[in-house]
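Re: How this chain folds, sequence and tokenised backbone to follow

Filed under: protein folding, tokenised backbone structure, sequence and structure records.

Contents: The amino acid chain and a row of whole-number tokens, matched residue for residue.

Body of memo: The sequence and its backbone structure tokens, given next.
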Amino acid sequence: MDIDRIQPGDWNSRACVFGNLVFLSGTVADDKTLPMKEQTAQVLAKIDAVLEQAGTDKTRILSATVYLADLGRKEEMNEAWMAWMDADNPPARAAVGVTLTPGTLVEIMVCAARQ
């Protein structure tokens, strides 16, 4: 079975598709000056775009890992997440506190099933 690499770069691909599974790389906001909720919303919009390119959407996300620069701001991230997430199809999710690049408040990585 072939592996389809979406937007391959020098050191990673935005996503890899293997069979009916889509694995997205960690996604961060383009605008690092935004607060947590807005960075999260920007990240989720970027995830939507890559999932569409891979032939799927957020209703098919199986798992998500959310990396937060400040775990104390998890509720701000959750506000954007809950507004975006399909309430009928919530994925398995973990949120962890980590050190991210300067200005990056949130990074999200997902795995989804294809349509």
The chain has a mean pLDDT of 97. Residues 3-113 form a domain with the 60s Ribosomal Protein L30; Chain: A; fold (CATH 3.30.1330.40). The two ends are 18 Å apart (CA to CA). Residues 36-53 form the longest helix (18 residues).
